[in-house]
Amino acid sequence: MRFAIDVTACWRPQRVGMVTVAVELSRALVANRGQDEFVLLCSRERPASLADLDCEAVLAPYRHELVLKSR
What we know:
- The protein is α/β, with parallel strands linked by helices.
- It has one domain.
- 28% of the residues lie in helices and 21% in strands.
């Protein structure tokens, strides 16, 4: 299966609160993916903290998370 991970809020350089959770969860999911594929949905460039992650990263077509998640 192919999954998308919304990291649109992870563009800030500081790793605090939910950004830390999103980064670490993304790393764990990709590391243990088995046959699954993951794509990072980014609001800008790929977050620096996920630069070395072995998965595709694309610019999210929508900036608002409700619109993004309903598509």
